[in-house]
Specification:
Order of helices and strands: HHEEHEEEE
CATH class: Alpha Beta
CATH architecture: Roll
Mean pLDDT: 94
Helix content: 25-40%
Shape: globular
Number of strands: 6
CATH topology: Nuclear Transport Factor 2, Chain: A
Strand content: 35-45%
Number of helices: 3
Structural class: alpha+beta
Low-confidence stretches: none
Number of domains: 1
């Protein structure tokens, strides 16, 4: 049985780093071969830590009002499912669900589902 706290810790740390716009702390919580999906697309939107860092440096952490609020969290085995409310990206508030898969204490796969 996987320890819920062990699974949850890297997800919480990356959320904290996201809100601090601290790129180094943020990417430290991901595996080198991380894959990020945006269903219904079946191919990864981002593949690898370098691509992840580049995307967040140029499309997120440069936004002055960026903030993600954790609405709810569920831990199921090695998956963490977060309902997030994000502001500072485009107009208004974005609702999203993020599913994080944790392997050996790091996030290896992410699926982002946007509402609407």
């Amino acid at each position: 049985m996987m320890d819920t706290m062990t699974t949850e810790r890297p997800v919480q740390r990356q959320l904290d780093a996201y809100n601090a716009r601290d790129l180094q702390r943020f990417i430290a919580e991901y595996t080198d071969d991380v894959q990020v999906f945006r269903p219904p697309a079946t191919q990864p939107a981002l593949s690898g830590k370098a691509a992840l860092a580049e995307h967040y440096a140029t499309h997120r952490f440069n936004l002055p009002d960026l903030h993600a609020e954790l609405v709810s969290r569920m831990v199921l085995g090695n998956k963490v499912i977060d309902h997030e409310r994000i502001v500072g990206v485009g107009e208004g508030t974005m609702e999203a669900a993020a599913v994080y898969e944790v392997r050996d204490g790091l996030i290896c796969t992410v699926w982002f589902f946007n509402a609407g």
